[in-house]
Amino acid sequence: MGGYFGVASKEDCVFDLFFGVDYHAHLGTRRAGLAVYDAENGFDKAIHNIENAPFRTKFDKDVGAMKGQLGIGCISDYEAQPILIRSHHGTFAVTTVGRINNADEIVEEIIKSNTHFFEMQSGEINPTELVAAIINQKENFIDGIRYAQELIDGSLSMLILTPKGIYAARDKYGRTPIAIGQKEGSCCASFESFAYLNLGYTAVRELGPGEIAVVTADGVKTLVAPGKDMKICTFLWIYYGYPSSSYEGVSVEQVRYNCGKLLARRDNVRPDSIAGIPDSGTAHAIGYSNEVGIPFSRPFIKYTPTWPRSFMPTQQSKRDLIARMKLIPVHDLIEGKSLLLIDDSIVRGTQMRETTDFLYASGAKEVHVRTGCPPLLYGCKYLNFSRSKSEMELITRRVIQELEGGEVTDEILQEYVDPDGEKYQKMIDKICEKLHFTSLRYHRLDDMLEAVGIDKDKLCTYCWNGKE
Ligand code: SF4
What we know:
Elements: E1 3-9, H1 14-22, E2 31-38, E3 42-49, H2 55-65, E4 70-76, E5 83-87, E6 90-100, H3 103-111, H4 127-135, H5 141-151, E7 154-162, E8 165-169, E9 179-183, E10 186-190, E11 202-206, E12 212-216, E13 219-224, E14 232-233, H6 235-240, E15 246-247, E16 250-251, H7 252-265, E17 273-276, H8 282-292, E18 300-302, H9 316-326, E19 327-329, E20 338-343, H10 350-361, E21 366-371, H11 395-404, H12 410-414, H13 422-434, E22 439-441, H14 445-452, E23 459-460, H15 462-465
Parallel strand pairs: 14-23, 17-20, 20-21, 21-22
Antiparallel strand pairs: 1-4, 1-10, 2-3, 2-4, 5-6, 6-7, 7-8, 8-12, 9-10, 9-11, 12-13, 15-16, 18-19
Helix pairs in contact: 1-2, 3-4, 7-8, 7-14, 11-13
The site of iron/sulfur cluster has 10 residues, from helix 15.
C-alpha cells in the first residue's frame, strides 16, 4: 500500500517530517524516502531499502544532515521514492500511493515525444517517475495533476514538493486518504490522520476525492474542488489502517469493534475464549467478546522487541516463517480449551492452517475461525499490496476452481458472492475442511458496510464482490 507525509513550516521541518513518516511504517516494507527544500540550500533527498531494518534506523544519519522548511516523505511497498525531477515546472519532488494498470500504454505515448525513462531492475518504469512525466506533459502543476488523475487507470494520491509549497492531490475516487493537520507556524498533509497528533498538530480536515490543495506554513488552500463520487478503500478500516487512525471521520478501532460485534450477533458457538490473531484480529476479537460476554484472551503474544514490522522479506515462504516466529504461544490458555480465533481476513490460508494445527498440537479442543471481512474473491486492482499478488493465490479462487472443476468465469464467481447462496456455503465448508478449522464463518458484506457506517456507495468493495 504505502503512505506519505508532507510538512510546510516557518522553522526547520525535518524533525516533524521524520516522525510523521515513521508513523506510516505499518503501510509498507520495501523502500522509504525523504525530500526537503531549504530556502538557502535548495533540495536534498534520501532513499533507503527498509526490508531488513526499520525506517528510523535507516534514516538516522540523514536526518541529522538534512534541513529545510518544506518536506515530503514516504514508506513505499514497491518503488524507490520520492523522486526529484527537473522540468519546465522547475525542480520538484514527488511521492505517490496507488497503482497504474495502464502504465505500458502511457509510457509508449510519452516516449513518442523523444523522451526516455529509466527501467527498474524488474524492467518496469518507476510508477512515481511515470506520474512526474505525465504531470510534465502540461503547462502547470494543476493541469498536470488533473491530467494524471484522468489518464491513470487504477488509483493515484500524491504529494509534490516545490519551493513554494506542497501540492496534495487525493485520488479521483478518494481510494486513499489525505488528512490535513495544523499547528502554530506549520501545516502538514498525511495519509494517516493520527500521524501528526503526537507532534502537536490538530486535525483540520480531510481532502475530498480528486481534490487538489496546496499546503504552506500558513495553512491549506483548495486549488481544485473535490468531486462528488467516492470509492474509498474499505480495507483501510478492516486491516491496513493503523487502529488510532480515522478516515472520513470514522475511527478504525471502532469499526473493528463493530465488525466483531456484528459477527457475534450472527454466531451460535460457545467457545471458552475469544482471541484475535495479533495484531490484525485483536480489535475484531475484542468487539466479538464484548458482545457475547465470553472472555477475550491472548493464546498468542507477538514478540515485538527484536522483530520490527519492517523485517519482512519479499519471498512469500520466508514471510510466512517470520510471521509464525513472531507469535509466541501461551500453553495454559490453549490446552483443553475451545477457542474462537478471529483474523481480519484469510488471504492464502497457509498461515491460518499452520496456526490452527499448532493449536491442536498444543492441546486445543476446538478451533473456530471468524474473519473481519467477507471472502476475498478478487485481487485489488486499485492499490499495490505485497499481501496477495495474484488472484489464484487466494484460497477462495483455488477452492472455487476445485468445486467447479474447470475455468472460473466472472459469472461463476458472482454465484459465490451471495452469503445466503448454496455455492457460497459449499465454498466456506471446503475452506473450513482444508484449513482444519472446527467451524468457519466470514463477515457478511452488508454487516461490514454497516460496521463502517458511512454511505455504502462511497466505499470500495471490489475485492469482495467484484463491483467497481
Ligand atoms: S479492491 Fe479492496 S483492497 Fe482494493 S481498494 Fe477496493 S476495498 Fe481496497
